[in-house]
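Ticket #4471: structure output looks truncated?

Reporter: J.K.
Steps to reproduce: submitted the chain below (281 residues) through the standard prediction queue, then opened the result file.
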Amino acid sequence: MRKLAYALLLSAATVQAQPPTGTTPPQLDQTQVEAIRAAVGNNGRTITNVTRDAYRNPEQTLTFFGVTPEQTVVEVWPGGGWYTEVLAPLLRDKGKLIAAHFDPESDVGFFRRSRAEFEAKLAEHPERYDRVQLASLNYDPDLAISEPGSADRVLTFRNVHNWLAAGESEAKVMFEKFFAVLKPGGLLGLVEHRAKVNTSLEQMVDSGYVTEKKVRELAANAGFELLSVSPVNQNPRDTADHPEGVWTLPPTLRLGNEQRAHYLATGESDRMTLLFIKPEA
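Returned output as attached by the reporter:
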């Protein structure tokens, strides 16, 4: 029964919208899927990160994004390295992982501390992370992530609401940077907390939930075309209307013990999982 449930979940990860560009979404072969599975199962991952797999679905998500071991992949604002723990071993031998983290010279103290902690994490385990290439990603339009047209994939997980909180022009710069660093035909894989239709921009910033329409608009304005959509990270139990926004839910649980059991039962947020393509020239 568990194998059947897992097979159904993996199948759901590859449910795709009709490609609007006429381009076929990536389909991985069995060897490539097994490489992702091995990276997800590597013993270098921290236990607290592994326990969140049920909500973040890393194997199914990376399979949907078409990530393979020989690619150059940009991980956007990796924070504490949740996905880095998976991507680094996956790409270590044949590919390249560019961790586009916060600017270490940022005026924001949290950004500086998070970057320093991430660097310390990499330095502590060189056998896993010595080939990770660090880059800085901020809102300066003149600071490129890496060489233009050099990446096969750009991956961003639950970051769009932060950019919108900084301002629409700042969010615009981010998507433009992703477009610039990708090769023609390269893909942007994006996961974000999903707001209800017609949610205002102010409500998005306050709640941390973003409408799919807004994300698609930002991507399209940068030159991307929507390639495919997956339901893999959806959570129908999440109503997206909590008193402290998305931070009401785990893992933050901002309300503390107030209705804690209810929010634990709800689980982590309902999330859109979108795949965009940089069109061939």
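Triage note (M.O.): checked the attachment and the full token line is present. Strands lie at 72-76, 96-101, 133-136, 151-157, 182-193, 225-230, 271-277.
Status: closed, working as intended.
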